[in-house]
Design brief:
328 residues, Nucleoside Triphosphate Pyrophosphohydrolase, 4-stranded mixed sheet, 7 helices, globular, magnesium, NUDIX_hydrolase_dom, NAD, NUDIX_hydrolase-like_dom_sf, EC 3.6.1.22
């Protein structure tokens, strides 16, 4: 990236694209997994007595080994925590507090259908995030991220010693040295490249079936800003030089522990694509009309014969694409 491009990205210069047309746009909706429906109540993670005192009336979210949960009526099924044990098990994680004051914990384990006749389904975030209410989206996203981290963090990265959960599941400690570790998050950028008018870039990864397209994404490297990562990743993946990098929003993506940070940027349709890192099989510039048509045909799960099949609503990619396509 040229020094001028770096300066424009760092300063957030977005006065307009080619021809002077304004290029700013916002996400129309909060990404589905970014919704907030419960109090995270972080003070209770270190107030052990208060957390334990709330266990008797607390609710429990069970997440199985495939990160699936029970869903009924658009809500995640929560059981009685006291039915599991008299106190929080060592591997339980504290998720927060509902509006009525009840605590919510999560454990990894077999799913148990609730009492009564309410129909329930076994689903996960990828398949059911779009039907979750705000509380369910937050609880399941947090539980999935925390439990996935615990599954892979049972030994100290410093000396290999076994570690133990602390702070209501929000940390792990080496009992010999006292060294503490906290949940790891891998940030990744995801960016819609457009020409400042009515064309945008969509691409297909080599491992994806034909017709499945999305916007470009990649993990942030050590010592790199989000904006610099956008420029680098797009150059590596499709060979385009982009400018006017602007933040849109973010969304947790606990598969297993990512945070997707959304942007849009300006590219030149006259510049040829080059697939430099081998991740992208094909890319193209698509008009707003073409993208609107693809959105109307559903998503990746659709049986539509549409030329394009775009990501589902659970992904921030969908929200970014829809928000851009809705521009006049």
């Amino acid at each position: 990236m040229s020094p001028g491009g770096q300066e424009r990205s760092d300063q957030g210069l977005t006065s307009g694209g080619p021809g002077g047309r304004a290029i700013n746009f916002r996400l129309r909706n909060i990404p589905l997994l970014s919704r907030v429906g419960a109090d995270r109540a972080d003070t209770l993670r270190t107030d052990v007595d208060a957390a334990v005192a709330g266990w008797a009336d607390a609710l429990l979210l069970r997440v199985d080994r495939r990160n699936q949960v029970l869903i009924g009526g658009g809500r995640v099924v929560l059981g009685a925590a006291a039915a599991l044990a008299d106190a929080p098990p060592v591997d339980a994680v504290f998720l927060g507090r509902l509006h009525d004051g009840r605590h919510v914990w999560a454990v990894r384990g077999e799913l148990e259908p609730p009492e009564g006749d309410e129909p329930v389904e076994v689903l996960d975030l990828r398949r059911a995030g779009h039907i979750f209410d705000d509380v369910s989206a937050q609880l399941v996203s947090t539980a999935t991220a925390l439990l996935n981290w615990h599954d892979s963090a049972r030994f100290s990265p410093v000396d290999g010693a076994p570690t133990q959960p602390i702070k209501a599941g929000w940390g792990r400690s080496n009992p010999l040295t006292g060294h503490e570790e906290f949940p790891r998050i891998d940030p990744a950028v995801i960016c819609l490249v457009h020409d400042g008018h009515d064309r945008a870039v969509l691409a297909r990864q080599t491992v994806w079936p034909e017709r499945l397209f999305s916007i470009l994404a990649g993990f942030v490297e050590a010592g790199e800003s989000f904006e610099a990562c956008v420029v680098r990743e797009i150059a590596e993946e499709v060979g385009l030089t982009v400018t006017d990098v602007e933040y849109l929003g973010s969304q947790p993506w606990p598969f297993p522990r990512s945070l997707m940070v959304g942007f849009h940027a300006i590219g030149d349709p006259e510049q040829e694509f080059s697939y430099n890192d081998g991740e992208i099989a094909e890319a193209g510039w698509f008009t707003r009309a073409e993208i609107r048509d693809a959105l109307e045909h559903g998503d990746w799960n659709s049986r539509s014969p549409s030329r394009l099949l775009l990501p589902g609503s659970i992904s921030i990619a969908r929200e970014i694409i829809e928000s851009w396509a809705a521009q006049d």
